[in-house]
Specification:
heterotetramer, A: 3-stranded mixed sheet, 12 helices, about 20% strand, disordered N terminus, B: alpha+beta, 7 helices
Chain lengths: ~300, ~150, ~150, ~300
């Protein structure tokens, strides 16, 4: 496998280099049930919806599905009833950084990429995919984490830690609450997952949007308790850990977020998502940032 | 020569409510019992009505970590062991959650040439044979191949 | 876990100069000798350099009459017999005339996760393993599947 | 399989209904050798050639390959050196009959079909494919050949015969000539195949453009004799045979043409190609023509 060696920063990278070419699409007449199937199988947070003429007309995200669950829609409901439209687009030749700005300013999590020539959808750009790219650049960097690990005495660069990037507020629900209350909590805070604590205040599990839509598909009611749906134990890392190590853990374990604990594992002080890391927008060490200043100026 | 002449009537099916772990075991059981590698299994409900298909690819797509494009650069970790945690994480997922629901089927009287045409055009290796809604057999591309080309083999 | 740990080293190859009839026979020989259904064979030259792949699909696409969409409406003819004449007509065609020449290969040290990634992304069931230009093995999707999912099977 | 029953004539049929959706394409940098491979495998008479940006820029036909063989080009030659461009296009919504007129007037054998929306190539329209369509309509026709065969006494309709449609001129070469001479003969007459006669004037075989490009791929020289390349025996039918029967024979045996003999099999009087039959442009019996007059007027 070739290792990327041409650049050590994201500047100058095009959307085409960062986008995911596999775009999961469904017709607007397809059912919510079918949409959940695709989200689980392809591990995507949103599906592009097209009309009878194959035109992209909307997007259905896990949040939208969770809303349908909360509202009591049957899973046979057609996606056109819950989709949000129109989708936002960028082009393969666009600068990656410009597109990330668009996403941040519009408060959206993904842009679909229109083929410059054919007007067909050629890919999708989402934060977690960029993290993979960042990770590659980090590894290829002369002064990156892995190289310095090997030559300890050359490790002159201060590296970012999880606490520098994490979201420091954590919302939680109690383990005796029902799914409707969990959904309310998730909707209020715009997080992908919520921590579950027991009556002693100890973290006992996590419920993600994915867990909720799976429960929805399996016929669970929103009136049922959270325990059978939550995942335990809590996937976590320490606040003082290096960001690169946490990133590697998320990429290898294929999880979208880690809860962050203080030196006391039961004390959750924040959450680190792949999207946080990508919004951070550069490599995970000062070496990358400084080289970027040089190249980018 | 029609479907019922070449279809296999000794076949295994999955249930939509099987877990992915159960599905993997059933792939192995089916391969051993039918004495050939089984790449795809039909999914049928309690009444033997076909509701989907699940292939090894479907399971691999689902199990494979999403950001695999970085794996090639990780020389110092054996990712095989990391699957343990993935498997734990996905134990709530059922066959119906990832199976393919748009399945092309044929009838027992579908002509061999039509079967070959469908298999070529849609790039399908196996076609469930249904009578009404009930699954009665499965036609494999290898059987179509040898049936059509047996003149070559004499 | 890398390619050489799971690749099959007992494999058959076709020669580019084999006729299609010889290829069909070799598919049968390979299936019997390797005790599994073989859907695709590597094509290697006299020096065992990989020059292409030929699958059952390639042969079916080629052998199948072009205007097959009308066959479904012909109830009164058994087209199987008509293959005799087709076969006669194509006897000058060689494996190299219809084989796929754009073949993705891996090296003996390619990582299992990378192999799975290629197989999923490109929808390939078998990957030739080459050392330099020489073919040294073949990795099947079923072996990747069971290797990755063996935790499910205990 | 559904039998087409809506119409008994071609009028009103769109290109989309008649086109072949599988379009064989190659980049212009691909070799002649590779192109011959595709032509043989997919049984197509031409391959669409695209540039680096996937734009269709030309077409390479068996005639062009034959020309390269004659000119002594190595089979490694890139297709851009022998392609003819630009390709001619039509759209899925176009009337089939209008597109056939375009083909006839331009003297070309195929039109590529551009997707109305995406500008990507959605299909190809060629004469032989239309014959399949005609055959389906014939079979579905109330007054068609197969029905009348079953109810003989109702057979009031005069049916077309092979002699009505065939091309009555036949070019031939001698079996002691070489491939270069055969190519000259084929080029002069715009036929897809040439008859080979022995010194007694008896037909002994046929050499088609397909046979020639296969020979080219296998390293045969144009100076070599025709015998190892020609196909024997000659696929033929009688001039008095019904057109529908001859059509069925061509479709089932997957041959593009039949030579036509008089009551004496050794006397070849014409050639009937799938393209001839399609250019004829209606069903194969008077029933179809008369119903077409009614519907079409």
């Amino acid at each position: 496998m070739p290792v990327v060696e041409r650049r050590s920063v994201l500047s100058g990278i095009s959307v085409e280099e960062a986008m995911r070419k596999q775009v999961v699409q469904l017709p607007k007449s397809a059912s919510i049930d079918n949409c959940i199937n695709r989200m689980i199988k392809y591990k995507v947070n949103a599906v592009l919806i097209s009309d009878e003429e194959q035109h992209p007309v909307g997007v259905v995200s896990k949040t939208d599905i969770m809303g349908a669950f909360y509202a009591g829609f049957p899973t046979e409901t057609a996606l056109e009833n819950i989709m949000v439209g129109p989708p936002l687009f960028c082009y393969p030749d666009d600068e990656l950084e410009t597109s990330l700005d668009t996403m941040r300013q519009s408060g959206i999590h993904r842009l679909y990429v229109l083929g410059a020539e054919s007007n067909a959808v050629a890919g999708v750009l989402a934060y977690p995919d960029i993290v993979g790219l960042l990770y590659r650049y980090c590894r290829a960097c002369d002064r990156g984490l892995l190289k310095t690990r090997r030559k300890k005495d050359e490790d002159k660069f201060e590296r970012y830690k999880v606490k520098d990037v994490m979201t420091a507020s954590v919302s939680y629900r109690r383990d005796n609450e029902n799914l409707a209350q969990v959904i309310e909590g998730l909707s209020a805070h715009h997080f992908g997952a919520v921590l579950i604590k027991n009556s002693h205040g100890d973290p006992v599990g996590v419920v993600s949007k994915t867990d909720l839509i799976v429960a929805y598909k399996h016929g669970v009611s929103v009136d049922e308790g959270v325990e059978p749906v939550m995942k335990a134990p809590v996937q976590s890392c320490e606040a003082e850990a290096y960001l690169a190590t946490a990133l590697q853990q998320m990429l290898l374990k294929d999880v979208q977020r880690l809860f962050v604990h203080s030196s006391e594992p039961r004390q959750i002080v924040g959450v680190l998502s792949l999207s946080d890391a990508a919004r951070f927008r550069s490599g995970s060490c000062r070496a990358c940032v400084s080289s970027r200043l040089v190249v980018g100026s | 020569m029609i479907a019922q002449d070449i279809m296999q009537t000794n076949f295994h099916t999955l249930r939509p409510g099987n877990t992915i772990a159960e599905a993997v075991k059933l792939f192995q059981v089916a391969s051993e019992s039918e004495e050939k590698k089984i790449f795809g299994l039909m999914v049928a409900d309690e009444e033997d009505h076909l509701v989907g298909m699940l292939s090894m690819y479907d399971i691999l797509i689902f199990i494979q970590p999403k950001h695999t494009h970085i794996w090639g650069e990780i020389e110092d970790i054996d990712p095989t062991g990391l699957f343990d945690e993935s498997l734990e994480r996905v134990k709530s997922i059922l066959v119906s959650d990832i199976m393919t629901t748009e399945v092309i089927t044929i009838q027992p009287d579908t002509h061999l040439m039509v079967i070959a045409d469908i298999m070529i055009k849609k790039h399908i290796r196996r076609l469930p044979v249904t009578e009404g809604k009930e699954v009665v057999g499965i036609v494999y591309v290898s059987d179509v191949f040898y049936q059509l080309l047996n003149k070559f083999l004499v």
